[in-house]
Design goal:
Distance between the termini: 20 Å
Number of strands: 14
Structural class: alpha/beta
Order of helices and strands: HEHEHEHEHEHHHHHHEEEEHHEEEHEEH
Number of helices: 15
Radius of gyration: 22 Å
Helix content: 40-55%
Strand content: 15-25%
């Protein structure tokens, strides 16, 4: 279920001179959001005739940009303004041409859903970047926890860390869960390959597997190229760069921030995934990185730009920035393999007026100017 704040974000974009693109992987809730927005328009007094809703996932969908254009033009009402809502638009060949023509030639307010990062770039380029992109993430932990009784919140947290929330494993037998996650993860990869018309499906799949295996770890591009070529994938640095950008639908690269100079460093980077279940479906990963990944996704979901910090020889798990707000966050493993003193060292090196948070399994006292939040409370939005 898409949270209300996504609908609120769409409503905030309403009346902007732009095409609104709702982006996200298959199954994340894009269609639900678009239909909910249509219902909201009707509730606010917009006539049905002023709302054109086109579903491009059906067998009788328009197949190319000309068919889509003709379909829309045949439905345009005689009004000063109308709303054009197109679901799953990336199934229409060269659909960006239709969007461009309608945007510049009609009084339409346009909203589309798509899974293709390539298509988002094409539409943005044609419209001189007159696009607002809303990325939808899988359900939060607080939404996921609703599937569990209040007495089983610890089970809800473990299930969320291990399986995420995009792939439904609640109620599945323990022995079936790995196969469910594996199958769903590879289906998502296939969907991205298909919708972005990637020529080297094997390279893209192996790249995503490598990102899963190394989630939360700094990746050296040269070592990555060697690993892929040694594994039999015909590739080069440019192909890896292009496929990594497309793969950002699943794995997003966090830049490295020089905390003392306040600048992003040109080298280095860590990848985190939009959902823990995708990681588990592609690789076996230490719980430490699953915990970090869950925190990172929650920060993205709340609208923060996220990097990881380098303070001399010390690291900071995440640096989250949203407008003028900046938060420095360290995340400790649930197994307490890192002491509180060691886990707060890099935070204690920061100025006293800096907002600092330590996320732990259980509450910790006497941290001075460092705020402590338990993992469950943080993921619950408390």
């Amino acid at each position: 279920m898409v949270k209300n704040f996504y609908l609120e974000k769409i409503l905030e974009l309403k009346n902007n001179f732009s095409v609104k693109i709702i982006s996200g992987v298959r199954g994340v809730g894009k269609t639900f959001l678009l239909k909910t927005f249509a219902e909201k328009l009707r509730a606010d007094g917009v006539n049905d005739g002023e709302i054109i809703f086109i579903d491009c996932s059906t067998n009788d969908r328009p197949k190319n940009f000309q068919q889509l254009y003709n379909l829309v033009m045949a439905k345009i009402p005689e009004s000063e303004k109308f709303f054009l809502l197109i679901d799953d638009i990336d199934r229409v060949d060269e659909c960006e041409k239709t969007i461009n023509a309608i945007f510049v030639g009609t009084p339409a307010e346009i909203y589309v859903t798509c899974s293709s990062a390539t298509l988002v770039g094409k539409i943005s380029a044609l419209l001189s970047k007159n696009c607002d992109v809303l990325k939808i993430y899988p359900p939060s932990f607080s939404e996921h926890a609703k599937k569990f009784s209040p007495k089983n919140l610890s089970n809800a947290l473990q299930n969320y860390l291990r399986c995420g929330s995009l792939i439904d494993t609640v109620g599945a037998g323990e022995k079936f869960i790995p196969a469910i996650l594996r199958g769903a993860a590879h289906e998502l990869i296939f969907d991205i390959v298909e919708k972005n018309s990637l020529q080297n499906a094997r390279l893209f799949r192996q790249l995503m597997i490598n990102f899963a295996q190394n989630v939360g770890k700094q990746i050296n591009p040269h070592q990555l190229l060697k690993i892929l070529t040694d594994g039999g994938c015909s590739t080069n640095s440019n192909s890896i760069q292009v496929y990594s950008e497309i793969g950002a639908q699943l794995f997003i690269k966090l830049p490295r921030l020089d905390v003392r100079r306040g600048k992003i460093m040109p080298v280095g980077g860590k990848f985190y995934c939009i959902d823990n279940g995708i990681i588990a479906g592609l690789a076996e990963v230490d719980e430490k990185f699953l915990v970090e990944n869950a925190v990172c996704v929650e920060l993205w979901r709340r609208g923060y730009n996220v990097s990881y910090g380098q303070a001399g020889m010390m690291t900071i798990t995440f640096v989250a920035q949203r407008g003028d707000e900046k938060i420095f966050i360290n995340v400790l493993p649930l197994d307490k393999s890192i002491s509180i003193r060691k886990g707060t060292r890099s935070l204690r090196s920061l100025p006293a007026d800096t907002k600092k948070i330590l996320i732990t399994a259980k509450p910790v006292k006497k941290l001075g100017d460092i705020e402590n939040i338990t993992l469950r409370d943080f993921l619950s939005g408390k």
